[in-house]
């Protein structure tokens, strides 16, 4: 407990780098107890006496004023005690207990909540984001205490244009939307998937400095095909099968029209939609609204940055990327998104057309290697299907182990959602890889759905590998003082910067060039020295700095394309005149940082 409090105090000081010296006032339209019950404004015992007088709070709180620093230390002490008291209990029980204590703070005092989150992001991201958020979604109906975000259901058809005005904030900058149909690797969780937009937006606030008063998590409840949930008496969503076809699309259309009619400058992130709707909605909206699909586009950029890192880890120039044999396991929204972006990168590097560069990529789904012989092939996967003559010795539907043994790939990348499919035999086969430093990316979430554990990867594939996983694993002790470094290949390195850069640019659409700029920025963030230590991504603890760089790269790409219309007082001309460094500085300065602002009441 003592140790945690010490760490907390020092990180508290470190984080002040971001704070403004004198926080500006904040206008509040309520008084008295209503303020104490509003987590956006509540300071708990931290209200100074003068403010208590001004806002009608005198007598509603114990008399002593506790400083922000003291409140912070007190929370961290409680958290430390909880860690101590739950030692030895099952992981799931401990994680949910940690989530509960953080969630209670979130519900009560957002300023303090986001401050502890920012300062301790490496420790808390696994609780508010993957993997614990998966467990929270699975148990959401039982855990539910207070609503957060908005719920639009199939029963709200025709009402959304007015419903959107029920949201209390005047301005919304960032929306994360899900229909709950593919939550991490856990499948259809219906309305319970709301935990994902909430967790993603927590990362937006912590990593990109979005003002929490201007973010909105949204659940589009069109039913669920999860029989267990339909039969669960506590289930909080619509008890009906999912809408399909035009009926489904008309609900999403109505929601998008409603959002952009109230907040024309908002950015919308689509998250955890099942594959058919992920691609369809991206195509349908990306030229009409300012939106992107994180699973397809954010993941692709993070994976590409990691793949370029593996080329550097082999001591080869980036141009050697075109010679890497890459096996992608999982032909869903994430796997296909990665392939599309990687192929664009190779064709840019080689100046070759995309038809020939596809040769180095191999794609498997639940039925094995995808070749042109595949019956009823999904149209989105068809461009990556192999000609049998190009995979001599392999057959349509060849198993993963057959493919790895035959091809000796440089990279094995899993986005299948299936825990443990990189089994001992597959990992041992990677020892014969043609690479001097084979790479294993077990990117599926949450932890139990990872294609392999970090320990198994180093044990079976050898100590010489580079390893990355979607959810965090601890570094692996290889003995003799050696450490197998674990990277977290998760789209959280990019989506906050994509959202922030887009917002500040004022662009009406998110283009491939903006996304590519984000990926290239992340790829170049890591130094050669770090790469030599097996690091492909920077530490999560520096996520605000990374996001500032990524956001600036996205913003500059929008400016270069002539799409930037500016944001607030900063117009297109000012953006155009900013140097690269000035853009990073501008993005950093635009980040909200949690401090108690003086509250001023206005009727
Ligand atoms: N690390 C990260 O940043 C991200 C990770 N993900 C993870 O990727 C996973 C997949 O996501 P989506 O592509 O959206 O799902 P999806 O449902 O669209 O696709 C899953 C794919 O895996 C294939 N598959 C299933 N069983 C298989 C098996 N035994 N062998 C080979 N392939 C198999 C399916 O045929 C399908 O093509 C999820 O677990 C998700 O959490 C997704 C986005 C980002
Ligand atoms: C990280 C993420 O977006 C996913 O697993 O779906
Ligand atoms: Mg996702």
Automatic annotation (TrEMBL):
<dbReference type="Pfam" id="PF03949">
    <property type="entry name" value="Malic_M"/>
</dbReference>
<feature type="binding site">
    <location>
        <position position="182"/>
    </location>
    <ligand>
        <name>(S)-malate</name>
    </ligand>
</feature>
<feature type="domain" description="Malic enzyme N-terminal">
    <location>
        <begin position="106"/>
        <end position="286"/>
    </location>
</feature>
<keyword id="KW-0560">Oxidoreductase</keyword>
<dbReference type="InterPro" id="IPR036291">
    <property type="entry name" value="NAD(P)-bd_dom_sf"/>
</dbReference>
<feature type="binding site">
    <location>
        <position position="271"/>
    </location>
    <ligand>
        <name>a divalent metal cation</name>
    </ligand>
</feature>
<keyword id="KW-0520">NAD</keyword>
<dbReference type="GO" id="GO:0042803">
    <property type="term" value="F:protein homodimerization activity"/>
</dbReference>
<dbReference type="GO" id="GO:0005739">
    <property type="term" value="C:mitochondrion"/>
</dbReference>
<comment type="similarity">
    <text>Belongs to the malic enzymes family.</text>
</comment>
<feature type="binding site">
    <location>
        <position position="445"/>
    </location>
    <ligand>
        <name>(S)-malate</name>
    </ligand>
</feature>
<dbReference type="InterPro" id="IPR012302">
    <property type="entry name" value="Malic_NAD-bd"/>
</dbReference>
<dbReference type="GO" id="GO:0006108">
    <property type="term" value="P:malate metabolic process"/>
</dbReference>
<comment type="function">
    <text>Involved in the regulation of sugars and amino acids metabolisms during the night period.</text>
</comment>
<dbReference type="Pfam" id="PF00390">
    <property type="entry name" value="malic"/>
</dbReference>
<feature type="binding site">
    <location>
        <position position="272"/>
    </location>
    <ligand>
        <name>a divalent metal cation</name>
    </ligand>
</feature>
<dbReference type="InterPro" id="IPR015884">
    <property type="entry name" value="Malic_enzyme_CS"/>
</dbReference>
<feature type="active site" description="Proton donor">
    <location>
        <position position="129"/>
    </location>
</feature>
<feature type="active site" description="Proton acceptor">
    <location>
        <position position="200"/>
    </location>
</feature>
<keyword id="KW-0809">Transit peptide</keyword>
<feature type="domain" description="Malic enzyme NAD-binding">
    <location>
        <begin position="296"/>
        <end position="559"/>
    </location>
</feature>
<dbReference type="GO" id="GO:0004471">
    <property type="term" value="F:malate dehydrogenase (decarboxylating) (NAD+) activity"/>
</dbReference>
<feature type="binding site">
    <location>
        <position position="295"/>
    </location>
    <ligand>
        <name>a divalent metal cation</name>
    </ligand>
</feature>
<dbReference type="GO" id="GO:0046872">
    <property type="term" value="F:metal ion binding"/>
</dbReference>
<dbReference type="GO" id="GO:0051287">
    <property type="term" value="F:NAD binding"/>
</dbReference>
<keyword id="KW-0479">Metal-binding</keyword>
<protein>
    <recommendedName>
        <fullName>Malic enzyme</fullName>
    </recommendedName>
</protein>
<keyword id="KW-0496">Mitochondrion</keyword>
<dbReference type="InterPro" id="IPR012301">
    <property type="entry name" value="Malic_N_dom"/>
</dbReference>
<dbReference type="InterPro" id="IPR046346">
    <property type="entry name" value="Aminoacid_DH-like_N_sf"/>
</dbReference>
<feature type="binding site">
    <location>
        <position position="490"/>
    </location>
    <ligand>
        <name>(S)-malate</name>
    </ligand>
</feature>
<dbReference type="InterPro" id="IPR001891">
    <property type="entry name" value="Malic_OxRdtase"/>
</dbReference>
<dbReference type="InterPro" id="IPR037062">
    <property type="entry name" value="Malic_N_dom_sf"/>
</dbReference>
